[in-house]
Amino acid sequence: MRTKVLALVSIALLLACRLAVAANQYQPAESPLRPGSIQPFDVAGTVTVSNGQSSTDELIVYSKGFGKWSSNLNAITETMVQQARSEIAKNGRVTAGGKPKTIELKVNSLRSEYKSFAHYYSSKMQFQVKLGDGQTIDKPVTHRSALALQDLNGCIAEGVMLLLKDEKVLAYLAQ
Question: What is the DSSP string of 64-127?
């Protein structure tokens, strides 16, 4: 009997360790912005938005107890790039003339935490923007939501919103 109990406890501990180490894959996805979140802006010339993040190393973007989600900064940046392209197409007013423009995005971190006393998730993201004229801009982003997935995706969308409200970015696009 004692051997069976020890065997069951050992198996339970091994399963608990496996659960503690394993992480679910977080697949970043576009979180639509409300209409009017980004004001129309002038764009002189074509705009190319690219992914400047080469790292595909897995990192934990959310963990609570035994639950963990992992992703990689390249995939997160690619979601931001796609949403930035979409928002530029929706809100950019094309003006005559102007040279082609480039915007390189690079997400350097994204992490969501559960705030147990307040009952919401709070994420933080840091990204870098390199404009074709040589300017580099670092941006921190914070976001909150009642759902972890929406918190992470919403933080990426909030980053796009901040990007397309930045005075330096708007001035560059308009020249």
Answer: ETTEEEEEEHHHHHHHHHHHHHHHHHHHEEEES----EEEEEEEEEEEEEEETTTTEEEEEEEE
